[in-house]
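Everyone, study these two lines:
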Amino acid sequence: MTAYNPMLLQEGDWVSGTTLQDERFIGYIESMNDDGRIRVRLTQCDRTERVGTLAEARPFKLMKLPDDLLSDVEALRGLIEVALITRDREWFKELSERKSAAEAAWPSHANGTGTPGSASGLSPFRRRFNPGFLR
């Protein structure tokens, strides 16, 4: 985990970390409180029943994830599912457009046969956001 710097974390940032109940997760920051607690929408969690819910975490227990991870079609499909679960129509439309553009740019990747720029066939997003990462 990186040292806490409140200027580094913002609402909407993707983070990995541990909740106040010691659950490992990946999600995005939904809100930040003055008392130092951050509310995160969980997209992956070691307790699968918590996926899609909000959890609280301390900033020093979070690691900001790189912003350039959303180019992978599989990742976009997963985020589209989150948008549907959270009923965020605007985000759903944005992600669907990005997925269509990514599939048009990399047709072989659209059917899951490979990721451009990745020697192992898995993009950094897929390696990082693998459910095995949480165990």
Notes: The radius of gyration is 15 Å. The chain has two domains: 14-65, 68-134. The longest strand covers residues 24-32.
